[in-house]
Amino acid sequence: MEQKKIDTTLENDQLMVERLFSKEALANYDKSSSNVPSSYFEAFPEKLQQRIANNKPKLFFLTPIGKMAIAAAFIMIVASTFIFLNSNVDKNLALSSLTIQDISIDEIEAYVDANEWMADIDWQSEAYKPDAEVEEFYKDSID
Amino acid sequence: MQSDQELILQFQKSIQREETFTHLVKKHQAKVYHQIKRMVNDHDDADDIAQMAWIKIWNKLDGFKMESEFSTWLFRIAYNETLNFIAKQKRQSSNTSSTDILDYENTASHTDSPKSSEIQIKLDQGIKQLPEKQQFVFMLRYFEEYNYEKIASITGTTVGGAKANYHQAIKKLEEFLKKS
After folding, report:
1. Residue among A13, A32, A55 whose CB faces B108 most closely
2. Among all residues of chain B, which has the CA nearest to that of A23?
3. What is the per-residue pLDDT across B138-178, written as a single tens digit (0 to 9) for each?
4. Quick check: ipTM above 0.90?
5. Region B24-41: what's the mean pLDDT?
6. How confident is residue A82, by pLDDT bands cut at 50, 70 and 90?
């Protein structure tokens, strides 16, 4: 009954137009609008997918996988920063609690032997600078 | 054949998204294209608008809650894209409108040449002079045979508003015929 009522209304609405224009003219109007190049609809989905694929980098962040990847990367950054900072605190603590008495004489001598030549290089490079005043370098030893 | 709802659920669960989307496109592409083409009368423009509408669907389909029919939502997006396109075109070529009408008249008479008649040309011109919203409502009602509830959802008006738009369109067509 309801369906019949709706159909009647539609029919009446269509009749209102057909009073003004012939059914044939209306059908021709629709027909001319329906003209499409051959194979247009067959090719359309592929063409559309290509256009979508060109925009994909932007879209990736909107997909559920993209959102999960961003969340995972964020957690990784926070976790690695936390681990890095904690390990540095441990090292600093170990160094600050170390006193000269804890290091053996042999270790100190070995360190001095190994680094002595570097001190020489530093001294020489400063001394041979063109505007260097040699007296400045001997001052300590003179005093 | 799978229903729209099944296809959308598959898409939202990221199961073969491209393939699922292509199914949806194949199901609805012709109707959407024809409705746009009736409004813009040019294949390339209709193709471009249809593509823009489908890209919007792709971008927003994850958030589609199926509170309305998919086809209603799709037509609504196509409707908005078409109106945006027409508005843009009007801005760009506001001083060439008389030439457009002349071109359109020539195209119409050429395409339907054997059956072409004065009434055919008047119909083309009469529909063309209607405001876009009335054109859209008229075509959805007469050619697609949609009910007013659906037309109202597509055009973002009330059922009463959609009915008024249709009857206004008929009245304007009648007046146009009397004048010409």
Report:
1. A32
2. B120
3. 999 999 999 999 999 999 999 999 999 999 999 999 999 88
4. no
5. 93
6. confident
* Lookup: tokens for A67: 């959102």
Phi, psi of B101, rounded to the nearest 5 degrees: -60, -40
Helix (H) or strand (E) holding B41: none
Burial pattern B140-159, b for ≥16 Cβ within 10 A else e, equals: bbbbbebebebbbbbbebee
What is the rounded average pLDDT for all residues in chain A?
77
Spatial separation of the C-alpha atoms in residues B176 and B180, rounded to whole Å: 6
pTM for this entry: 0.64
Classify B180 as helix, strand or coil.
coil
Task: Report the alpha-carbon distance of residue B22 to residue B51 in Å, rounded.
Answer: 13
Indicate the residue of A17, A34, A52 with minimum beta-carbon distance to B34.
A34
Handedness of CA B9, B15, B17, B23 (dihedral sign): negative
Tokens of B124: 């083309």
A141 residue type, one letter: S
Q: Which residues of A touch B (CB under 8 A)?
A: 6, 10, 13-14, 16-17, 20-22, 24-26, 28-37, 40-41, 44-45, 47-49, 51-52, 55, 59, 62-65
φ/ψ of B26, rounded to 5, equals -60, -35
Tokens representing residue A3 in the block: 């369906």
Is there a contact between A47 and B142 if contact means CB atoms under 8 Å apart? no
Min Cα separation B96/chain A (Å): 23
Q: Which of A116-125, B9-18, B105-114 has the lowest mean pLDDT?
A: B105-114
User: Are B71 and B9 contacting, i.e. CB atoms less than 8 angstroms apart?
Assistant: no
CB contact under 8 A, B55 and A55: yes
**Closest CB to B34 among A20, A33, A55:** A33
